[in-house]
Amino acid sequence: MKKLLALLLIIPLLAQANLRQYKADVEESVWFNEEPNRLQCTLNHQIPGYGTASFTSAASKLLNMEFNLDMLRLPKNYGVAAVYSVPPKWMPGLMHKNIADMTIRKQFDGDLPEQAAWTMLSELEKGFWPTLYYQDWYSQYDKIAVALNASNFHEPYEQFVHCVSNLLPYSFDDIKYTVLTYKFGGSDLTKASKRKLDMIGAYLQEDPDLELVLLDGYTDSYGGKSKNLEVSEQRANAIKTYFVGMGVNPERIDITGHGERRHASPNTTANARAKNRRVVIRMQKA
Known about the structure:
Layout: H1 2-15, E1 19-22, E2 31-33, E3 40-47, E4 51-58, E5 66-71, E6 79-86, E7 97-104, E8 110-112, H2 114-125, E9 129-135, E10 143-147, H3 154-165, H4 172-175, E11 177-181, H5 191-206, E12 210-218, H6 225-245, E13 253-257, H7 270-276, E14 278-285
Parallel strand pairs: 1-10, 12-13
Antiparallel strand pairs: 2-3, 3-4, 4-5, 5-8, 6-7, 6-9, 9-10, 11-14, 12-14
C-alpha cells in the first residue's frame, strides 16, 4: 500500500513542467571501470551536467557494495531522494519500482548501502534506469530527476563482476596488527603463521604504499639472554626481507629485537612458551 501511494505521488511529478532532468543520452551513455585490482572495484557512470554515479566493492571478509553519487553541486539543505527503477520509453506498460530512499545531507555526496546498490545494479542489468527524484535545494520551484542510463552497461558490468569475484577476502584492518609464531629453536614459522604472512604478502603486492611497518621480535626464555636477543632480531629481519621483496620501502620498516623480555604468556608449559616465540607486525597507511 505504501509503495502504491508513493507511486501515485511520483507519477504527477513526472508530468510537471518544472521537473529538471539529468541523464546521459542513449548514444552518449558511458560506463567504465577504474583500474581493477584485488583491493577495490569501481564501476562509474557519467551524468552530463550533474556528476558521476559509482558502484564500489572493497576487499573484505564479507561481500559488500556501495553506491555513491558524486555531485558537481553539493546539497545545500537536508532532505530525501526517492530512488526508483524506471522503464525506458521503449518498454511501454511496465511500472516504476521503488528501490530505496536516499538521505540527502548538506554539503555531502549522496550514497546508498549494499542492498539498495545491488538492487540498482540488478535493475540496470535488466535494462531499467535507476532514477532519483528530489526537491531542488537551490530552487523552490524545481524538482530534480537524476537517471542512470542502462545503455552500454552490460560489458563494463561483466568486467566489474569479475573484478568483485577476485577481491581479497580480507581488508587492511584484518592484517594491520598480526602476531606470527615460530617453531621451537629456530626461525621457522608455524603453518598458521605462514598462512598469515602469505595473506599480508598478497595484500602488499596490490598496495605496497605503507607509511610505517613496525616489527617486534620476541623469544621464549630457553637459551641465554644474548642468544635470545640475537634470535629475536633474526626473526624480525627475516620478515623485513620478505616485506622488501613485496615492494615495501626498507626505510619505512623499523625492527626491534626484545629477546625473552615482555612475555605474552608464562614460560611454564610448552604451549605457553610457543606464544612467546613471536614477531608482532604493526602497519600504518598514509
